[in-house]
Amino acid sequence: MDRFLAMQAFIRVVDSGSFTAAAEALGMPKATLTRGVQELEAHLRTQLLNRTTRRVGVTPDGALYYERASRLLAELEEVEGSLTQQGRAPHGKLRVDMPGAIARLFVIPALPDFYARYPDIELELGAGDRPVDLVAERVDCVLRGGEILDPTLIARRVGEFELIPCASPGYLARYGMPSHPSELNEARFPMLRYFSARTGQAIPDVFKRGDERVEVLGHPRLAVNDGDAYMAAALADLGAFVGARFIVAPLLARGELVQLLPDWQLDPIPLHIAFPPNRHISTRLRVFVDWLVEVMRRVSV
Length: 301
Hints:
By secondary structure, the protein is α+β, with helices and mostly antiparallel strands. Helices cover 40% and strands 24% of the residues.
């Protein structure tokens, strides 16, 4: 097997986690594909894959080779597409990750428009709050709230969301209504905290009114690192909290939550799309990012 085809075979094995699935996808006998990967390992003088009876895993050398080989093949695909398939719509697979609430409320409802424009792009959408290793998990881009602290990532700001302090009616019936943000630092007003799954740390909320500035960390009765759990705890009367307007607005309208301290403001949280600097910016990634920017700028978050 020539080296180019062996490289394709290796990449497909890593993507599928199986020699059998890779052979079916490439339309070749499994024995031929297996021999090609073995020849590639012999040529490189290193083991690329760990093989067991149950699964195929990538070695550290294999992960490095996969990252670079994937980029080379993607660049070749782009060059060939620009020369031989001009006018063809962007196509291929994209792996993206974003907070579950944004996916559920904004991105997924807008996806019919995306597929109407780009029917040949296949999306793998991770929706949740857990930290994602873009390189190790082969994720093309992520949408995240807050500042991007990893200096190795390229980030594009796409919007921001407003924060509102709230509590449930049941909480207010039991603990009363705070009249000043400093009271939320007192034990008599239990708080909910959202902590970063990446750092394990909770970030204080800073309330502002004119020249006044009050930092609130409070006495958390419960700390969580998942948006759905955060809201469930608030609705169960477990604590006052600070939530994103796009999530709490319907609950405020229905009376399930009550806004606290309406004459105080908190700084909005920026939204960024981020991707590794060494990730090949394919046409499909470029059009998805541009489309996602459109979606986030159309909605008021």
